[in-house]
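User: structure tokens for this one?
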Amino acid sequence: MAAKKKKNLNPSRTAADNRKARHLYFIEEEYEAGIVLTGTEIKSLRGGEANIKESYAEEQNGELWLVNAHIPEFAHGNRFNHSPRRPRKLLMHRREINRLAGAVQRGGMTLVALKIYFTERGRAKVLIGLGKGKKLHDKRETEKQRDWSRQKARLMKDHG
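Assistant:
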């Protein structure tokens, strides 16, 4: 089965974004997963203050879990508030979970959280990337390519 296509996301609907992930990893495939959240977590996510810079997904007992994602406590949450860094269950089909777990075990790959966003129906989703870590020279090469493409665009703009 092919990876699910990334939909055109409305940027205002994005709750958290991991922009550094593409700098640190070669992202080979992207997957969309549902996420199990409590009521105060959803309210806090809608405020847009979540942080997923160091978060990743891991497989435990046949289930995927989002680890190290920080969703701050809801200001008006009283005693029913959630723990900000608790592991959160991800919802995917069994076949996809097995394939991702196999890729992580065999190929030395990592499941990186790329983005948390809301769908048109108001459901929270996580975009997960199956990636391989970049070495320092790979990061430098990526930066050179990005700088060259910017410079090329400037030259094309200036000279018609």
